[in-house]
Write a structure and sequence with these properties.
single chain; 268 residues; globular; six-stranded antiparallel beta sheet; 14% strand
């Protein structure tokens, strides 16, 4: 797929006044290199058979979340693009970034195997309504995981900054893709057309950052608060780095054990 095409491949531009913008979500450096190359998913075409699904917003959004999930857990997941494209209301003109983000937050995600793309689908068959058992199963993803998003500036400086927290869903005219690495000279992005890994020098026209964290995952501020509550002190730099991104339940179990050991030592 050439970048020079003027044919829309699935993006409807625009955002709402209520959408989060950069600086709303807590910023954390989770990948200091800002390079997500080792965590990229396998490529998937948004153009199965003769059908153009117009679902680049869903494909690029799920590429971001599959990359993040692999980074956080070491486990690869292949979420159903077809499911999210349908549940988010993709039209023959495409979809909005925020609408796909809202669907993921509300409807959850499901493995490709439970709602796969058939061979040579039509628009009607691809966008068939999933059965209720599939819809309900997708919500299971939201039990351990919380998905948030915010629009960010799409300047090179902004992308270099935010890539240390997450890959970025970006838009150039007519198409949404995943920016997984930015340097001073090129943007590297992951596409839903082969070849899946591409480069460009021209800037993007919109950018949205997803944040994926476990529901009990602690931010740096959470760690500082828990150390004050449990040990009446601030964490050391090493303690802060270790516990940021870890689960609160795990911390509390460790804190109880450490505090018990400390009290026993005082008695002795």
């Amino acid at each position: 797929m050439s970048e020079n095409t003027e044919r829309n491949l699935g993006v409807i531009m625009g955002q709402r006044d209520s959408d989060y913008v950069g600086g709303t979500l807590p910023y954390e450096v989770v990948n200091p290199s800002g390079d997500w190359t080792p965590y990229l998913p396998p490529g998937e075409w948004q153009h199965p058979g003769l059908l153009e699904t117009m679902a680049c917003v869903s494909f690029s959004g799920l590429n971001v979340l599959e990359t993040l999930h692999y980074f956080h857990t070491g486990e690869r997941r292949n979420f159903s693009d077809r499911f999210t494209a349908k549940m988010s209301g993709t039209t023959p003109q495409g979809n909005w970034l925020w609408k796909v983000g809202d669907s993921i937050r509300k409807d959850g995600l499901i493995e490709e195997e439970f709602w796969p793309t058939e061979a040579n689908p039509t628009w009607e068959s691809y966008y068939a309504t999933p059965p209720m058992e599939v819809v309900n199963k997708a919500k299971d993803f939201l039990i351990p995981w919380k998905v948030q998003y915010e629009f960010i500036d799409f300047t090179r400086e902004s992308l270099l900054y935010h890539l240390k927290q997450s890959p970025i869903q970006v838009v150039f005219p007519s198409h949404a893709v995943m920016n997984f690495n930015t340097t001073e000279s090129v943007y590297r992005y992951f596409d839903s057309y082969s070849p899946f890994v591409k480069e460009r020098q021209a800037d993007f026209s919109s950018a949205l950052k997803y944040v994926l964290r476990r529901n009990d995952m602690m931010t740096a501020e959470d760690v500082k608060l828990q150390y004050v509550l449990a040990f009446y002190r601030q964490p050391t730099a090493d303690e802060l780095a270790f516990w940021t991104g870890k689960g609160l339940t795990m911390f509390l179990k460790t804190a109880i054990k450490d505090r018990a050991s400390y009290l026993n030592s005082q008695v002795q």
